[in-house]
Amino acid sequence: MLKIDLHIHTIASGHAQSTILEYIERAKKLKMKTIGIADHGPGDFEALVSEIYFKTLERIPRKVGNIRVLKGIEANIIDAQGNIDISEKLVERLDYVMANFHAETSYKNKGIKENTKATINAIRSGKIDIITHPFATERFPIDIGKISDEACKNNVLLEINLSYFFGNKIKDSTVPNAKLMIDIARKHSKKIIIGSDAHNIWELGDDSAFMKKFKKMLGLTNNLIINNYPRELFKLLKINE
Known about the structure:
CATH architecture: Alpha-Beta Barrel
Shape: globular
Distance between the termini: 22 Å
Oligomer: single chain
Number of strands: 8
Order of helices and strands: EHEHEEHEHEHEHEHH
């Protein structure tokens, strides 16, 4: 069970089933330490939000009981220049910004070369903290080696997204890509982050199936998982403890 889970979607994302309060109450029962609200950015056609939603997240208490509540976003890369679908002012107001391509946006697959270029530009922009599910390359093929290398050089976290390791989301490329990503992070002496990509409270923080089946296969060790090192994570995200 993750003690820190920063990849959580609420009903505001348009295709998730739980509210912020429901996640907080669930996190209390699971004895978690920190959760992060990261709904899809306004460039996602399914999202029910505009920038004002993310701006007003700061009105939610920083801590509810023993649960620390961080305010983030899963933004969308929207062009070849690596721009994302939120303003620089909003980037500065949020605790963290995650980003990648999503099918329900204006960005359409431009092939491995252009997709890789766009992702590298996003990484170099200084606007994002986490690249979500970079190993999932079916809809938007990228050079996972180049992306992983660039992320490590720019102190951008690479994510192991738990939702891609069960059901029909597991593809032939999932394990090899994820293993390559982890190997490159290790080479750079960097850690990766694990996120549930929860779309309801029952998925929150649940890494049990992944840890049982895939952890050893991927060569993933506890010392490579930044969720286990909250001080290091918060320092990287420039969040005061």
